[in-house]
């Protein structure tokens, strides 16, 4: 085989079995979104390159698949959908009914080095609320995220929703005289905390531009893994003005409590998120092994960055790759995903009736039932075997106008005439 | 607004309303596919460039968005999915259960000049049968295509399934001593017949390398718009050996008759299709104004071209853009696509019960109902107005443990306690 005729490394072929798994995950995301009052949207798979580089930070910019079209325009395949969302909302802000509660399941591409849990092409559930400053919007997104995890069969023992705060970090870094223009670098460094072995992280911290006092306070912040708002006030309110920030965190925890999902959630200052556009509360759904199943937060400036009005915004993304691995590990993938199912498999039991087989198949399909027949002449035994392999609920043996219905699971057989059968085929599927 | 922060021309933003339309079309395609016994698959959105250039012909090669990754590999966004399908099937041919009856709804990109009905990014339903040489496989694909058109509300008066034959053209061109290596050029020219004004097509034909006799016979073939197999035999069997070809066409018409869709179908030699990989019967679903809603045919060599075994294959594609325009013109888009719908909108009728609102919303959602509430404090009247705008079936006014359910359509109100309501919320949606 010519070596080029393979899938590109880091991409996936979805054969029917893999496709059923993908559909199971995406259908669940959709169902939970609609249930939570979100509406679906989507954007083009490629955009002007600038849209992605303007504010997402270096990590994303390095991962772009970019190209130039015949008109010399610099374009790129989307590595995330949030910039497109900001562009779309900014463009029609005055015409959109509020609140903007939208979700999407975009296909995204990143030019990463492929590894377990990280591919160059994947699907990501995105849930966002735009135009609501109240921290209730963040709680609403976190609820949707937890509701999906729960729907997949996961529990708080499997996944922890860790909630951090960018404003608290900003206030502390300001108090340490870290220059504003270096703030993103520090937060990007902090975000690597879980992605690197501890000694590699220590080395990065030591080699950074930070002085000893700054490094020491950062280490202190990083030790706040499971804290209460009271502890935050005790530890930091003497040093910086974090009253408003802590009040919002406290409100958020109240909402999460009312939503009945407090047991999933924990305050954890180690979470800062890697993207540069976050401005408020940030969070990550973390599974064993420090694997992020989902992550998000508030990004109040992004609409302005893409030329729109000032509008608050918040949301999260959940990718299909890490989630799929986790569900598989936990044995939470439904077993019946492995087999397709067909309602009826129609068999010509005698010679010369094949046109009637096609007629019956067509009538069943028009009636909304899935129905099929063999594609080459075979004896009845072989056709029954194929019906079984195809997962058919019933076989229909046809000879003239007389039918014999065979329920595949029980083996039970009943003779019936075609007209009576077509009056109510659903009866045989109960 | 910075001029770059717009969607690239020829791509579409799917705001919730456009997304509902897209989902309506794609859900219908999926439903019809499953009903006809096809299984869903998908491939990566980008592949090695060569996969697309090896056999699709010049038209596709010119329309590729190609790029180079960091490793220097030449890649391209898929302009069609058939090459990926051939690659995937070739790779696992011995492990796949037969027949391979697969469908997909890929997102495709082509670097075309955007115009009405032709965009640079679109969705295309693809339905294929691989490994079945019998013309029944072609009939099966045509049935699925027609079944979808019917499901969308279209009739034979709206769309005509025109069926042509590549082997017949090949036989005639051979008899005219058109060199094999120029055959694809002639067929590509013939395919332009409907895409150009008549005089522009005449000019192309006159300027081509064809001599007068060749041109004259081609014009004769092009006059066979609505023919019978008998007429084909009368007109051509003296000149070339088309016995087998005509027998297959005759068989195909028999199958289509048995399937009950003969009234949609017509033999039409003008249909040859633009792609170079077709080898057998070809067809196009044509609406008024010579607009192709779908097109396909048999491509028996493609698996070998991508390095696989010899396997017969046949299938078609139907794009969302032309179809969407047609359905809109005919008034066939469901009216309720315009509005979202929510089961319950929960309202705090008195102060201080907002945590209970969130609790009720969470319980309804966990029960599988779509439920929402306001995101900022408003009086009851304004909240009811929002419930109405959101298309809620019922509003739930909460004060303490007492609820008042308001059916939005009738305005009817009932008082009930929260526990009784939560026992069976579905009762209020009937």
Main traits of this protein?
16 helices, elongated, Rossmann fold, 38% helix, 430 residues, alpha+beta
Question: What's this entry about, in short?
Answer:
The structure is a homodimer of 430-residue chains. The first copy, chain A, is of the alpha+beta class and 430 residues long.
Question: Would you kindly provide a written description of the structure presented here, covering whatever features stand out?
Answer:
The first copy, chain A, is of the alpha+beta class. The first copy, chain A, has two domains: 16-335, 2-Layer Sandwich (BirA Bifunctional Protein, domain 2); 340-429, Rossmann fold (3-Layer(aba) Sandwich). Helix content of chain A is 38%, strand content 21%. Chain A contains 16 helices and 17 strands. The first copy, chain A, has helices spanning 16-35, 49-53, 58-61, 82-91, 136-151, 166-175, 180-191, 198-207, 212-222, 229-236, 243-258, 302-305, 320-329, 354-366, 380-389, 418-423, and strands spanning 39-40, 46-48, 66-68, 74-77, 100-104, 107-109, 121-130, 159-165, 265-267, 281-287, 291-298, 313-319, 342-348, 371-373, 392-399, 402-407, 413-417. In chain A, strands 1, 5, 6, 7, 8, 9, 10, 11 and 12 form a nine-stranded mixed β-sheet that branches. Chain A has a five-stranded mixed β-sheet with strand order 14-13-15-16-17, with helices on both faces. In chain A, a hairpin with a 3-residue loop joins strand 10 and strand 11 (291-298). In chain A, helix 1 runs antiparallel to helix 5 and helix 5 crosses helix 11 (243-258). The longest helix of chain A has 20 residues, at 16-35. The first copy, chain A, starts with 15 loop residues before the first helix and ends in a 7-residue tail after the last helix. Chains A and B meet through helix 1, strand 1, strand 2, helix 4 and helix 5 of A and helix 1, strand 1, strand 2, helix 4 and helix 5 of B.
């Amino acid at each position: 085989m010519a070596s080029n005729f393979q899938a590109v490394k880091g991409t996936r072929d979805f054969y029917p079995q893999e496709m059923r798994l993908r559909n199971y995950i995406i259908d669940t995301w959709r169902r939970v979104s609609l249930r939570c009052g979100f509406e679906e949207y989507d954007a083009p798979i490629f955009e002007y390159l600038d849209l992605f580089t303007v504010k997402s930070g270096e990590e994303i910019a390095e991962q772009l698949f970019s190209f130039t079209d015949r008109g010399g325009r610099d374009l790129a395949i989307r590595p995330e959908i949030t910039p497109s969302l900001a562009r779309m909302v900014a463009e029609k802000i005055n015409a959109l009914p509020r609140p903007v509660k939208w979700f999407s399941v975009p296909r995204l591409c990143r030019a990463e080095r492929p590894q377990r849990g990280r591919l160059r092409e994947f699907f990501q559930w995105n849930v966002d609320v735009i135009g609501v400053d109240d921290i209730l919007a963040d709680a609403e997104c976190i609820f949707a995220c937890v509701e999906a995890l729960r729907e997949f069969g996961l529990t708080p023992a499997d996944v922890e929703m860790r909630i951090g705060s960018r404003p608290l970090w900003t206030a502390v870094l300001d108090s340490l005289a870290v220059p504003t223009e270096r703030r993103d670098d520090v937060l990007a460094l902090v975000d690597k905390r879980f992605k690197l072995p501890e000694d590699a992280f220590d080395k990065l911290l030591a080699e950074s531009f930070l002085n000893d006092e700054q490094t020491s306070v950062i280490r202190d912040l990083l030790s706040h893994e499971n804290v209460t708002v009271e502890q935050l006030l005790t530890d930091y309110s003497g040093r910086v003005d974090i009253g408003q920030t802590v009040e919002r965190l406290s409100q958020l925890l109240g909402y999460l409590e009312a939503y009945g999902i407090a047991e999933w959630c924990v305050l954890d200052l180690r979470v800062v998120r890697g993207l540069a556009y976050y401005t408020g509360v940030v969070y990550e759904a973390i599974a064993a092994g420090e694997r992020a199943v989902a992550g998000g937060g508030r990004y109040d400036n992004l609409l302005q960055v893409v030329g729109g009005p000032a509008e608050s915004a918040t949301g999260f993304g959940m990718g299909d790759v890490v989630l799929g691995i986790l569900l598989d590990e936990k044995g939470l993938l439904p077993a019946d995903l492995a087999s397709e199912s067909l309602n009826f498999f129609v068999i010509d039991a005698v010679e010369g009736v094949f046109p009637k087989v096609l007629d019956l198949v067509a009538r069943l399909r028009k009636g909304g039932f899935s129905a099929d027949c063999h594609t080459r002449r075979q004896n009845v035994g072989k056709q029954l075997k194929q019906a079984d392999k195809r997962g058919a609920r019933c076989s229909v043996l046809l000879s003239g106008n007389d039918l014999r219905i065979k329920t595949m699971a029980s083996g039970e057989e009943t003779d019936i005439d075609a007209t009576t059968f077509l009056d109510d085929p659903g009866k045989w599927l109960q």
